[in-house]
Amino acid sequence: MEYERTLKVEEIEVRQINIVDSKGTRRMAIFNGDSFPEAVMDGEVLSRNGNQNGAAGMLFYNEDGDECGGLVYANSGAMLMFDQHKQDQIIGFSYDEQQDGKREYGLNIWDRPDVPLREVIEIATPVMNMENGPEKQSEWKRLQAEGILGAQRMFAGHSQDGAISVSLSDKKGTPRLRMRVDSDDNPQIEFLNSRGEVVYRLPPDGISMD
């Protein structure tokens, strides 16, 4: 494939731009809200979770053509994500604003299994297609316990209740330690059990930190 070496124009208006290397492998895509690129790994198109309607930004691809991260903006927020090789995001900066005006933004860290994302989707899709109910919830818990789905391990930032907080979770994604300064400027440290229940708090209830 041959390309013109230089093209000089005042302005260009397109729906999507694909940046490719010398072999023709896509390395970056710049897209608008109507042309969110399909997720690709090992040359196969993978299904995406969530709603990408209206989102615009940039996606990055490694030398194999696998998606490996991106910067995405939408009306309600933005994300900058870095993906584990052959997997989903493991580090991300996010901003989200709800219709009621509540905002959450900060740094997120995930654990991902050493199983390619393509295989995870194959395992999880039958569960996703199950009817909602106790059996489906049980299967999700089983996959989570086996580490197939990965888990969010840390959040550091501004939570929806107005607190500045750091939350550390176990391998199942259950919060186990929280440090926060709430919206009234009160500092607090909470220790949680494996069910996410607070078992110890500093300072203890009744002690003022003014």
Short synopsis of the structure:
With 210 residues, the chain is mostly beta strands. The chain is built from two helices and 14 strands, in the order βββββββββααβββββ.
What does this structure look like?
The chain is mostly beta strands. The chain has a domain at 1-75. The chain is 11% helix and 42% strand. It contains two helices and 14 strands. It has helices at 117-128, 134-145; strands at residues 16-20, 26-31, 39-41, 44-46, 56-61, 67-74, 77-83, 89-97, 103-111, 151-158, 164-169, 175-181, 187-192, 198-202. A twelve-stranded antiparallel β-sheet has the order 1-2-5-6-7-8-9-10-11-12-13-14, with no helix packed on it. A two-stranded antiparallel sheet has the order 3-4. The model has no long low-confidence stretch (mean pLDDT 90).
Topology (SSEs and partners):
Blueprint: E1 16-20, E2 26-31, E3 39-41, E4 44-46, E5 56-61, E6 67-74, E7 77-83, E8 89-97, E9 103-111, H1 117-128, H2 134-145, E10 151-158, E11 164-169, E12 175-181, E13 187-192, E14 198-202
Structural class: mainly beta
Unreliable stretches: none
State the distance separating the first and last CA atoms. Answer: 69 Å
Average pLDDT score: 90
Cα-based radius of gyration, to the nearest Å? 21 Å
Estimated helix fraction:
10-25%
Helix and strand pattern: EEEEEEEEEHHEEEEE
Biggest sheet strand line-up: 1-2-5-6-7-8-9-10-11-12-13-14
Q: Major sheet: size, sense and barrel closure?
A: 12 strands, antiparallel
Quantity of strands, as a count:
14
Count of runs of 4 or more consecutive helical residues: 2
Give the overall shape, derived from the CA principal axes. Answer: globular
- This entry's quaternary arrangement is single chain
Strand content: 35-45%
